[in-house]
Amino acid sequence: ENIKEHEPQRLAKVLAAAGVASRRTCEELIFQGKVTVNGSVCTAPQTKVDISKDSIYVNGNRISKKLPPKLYFAVNKPKGVYLLIR
Predict the structure, then answer these.
(1) pLDDT tens figures, 18-68
(2) Where are the beta strands (DSSP E) in 1-86?
(3) Does any domain span residue 55?
């Protein structure tokens, strides 16, 4: 999914794209009141936020205004060889 940095997006989606956790886990963090947007606790994952304008904190840690780049790996392995990525 494509996160556009200058359009309002759902809070849970922005947190997941920023690498905080999976989208479902981000929703749980929001429901638990561990996420603040512009200084107020947010308890609705569908809240629209603009990552470039809003100040977002999770457990007291600020989310960066820039999203991390996505990394893609192309792997070619012979049949019968198992790949372990950590």
Answers:
(1) 889 999 999 999 999 999 999 999 999 899 999 888 999 999 999 988 877
(2) 9-10, 35-37, 40-41, 48-49, 56-58, 61-62
(3) yes
pTM: 0.71
Pair 70, 63: CB distance under 8 Å: no
Provide the number of structural domains found in the chain: 1
Distance between CA atoms of residues 42 and 12, nearest Å: 11
Domain containing 37 equals 9-61
Query: Are the C-beta atoms of residues 21 and 32 closer than 8 Å to each other?
Result: no
Asked whether 33 and 58 are in contact (CB, 8 A), the reply is no
Q: Is residue 19 part of a domain?
A: yes
Does any domain span residue 70?
no
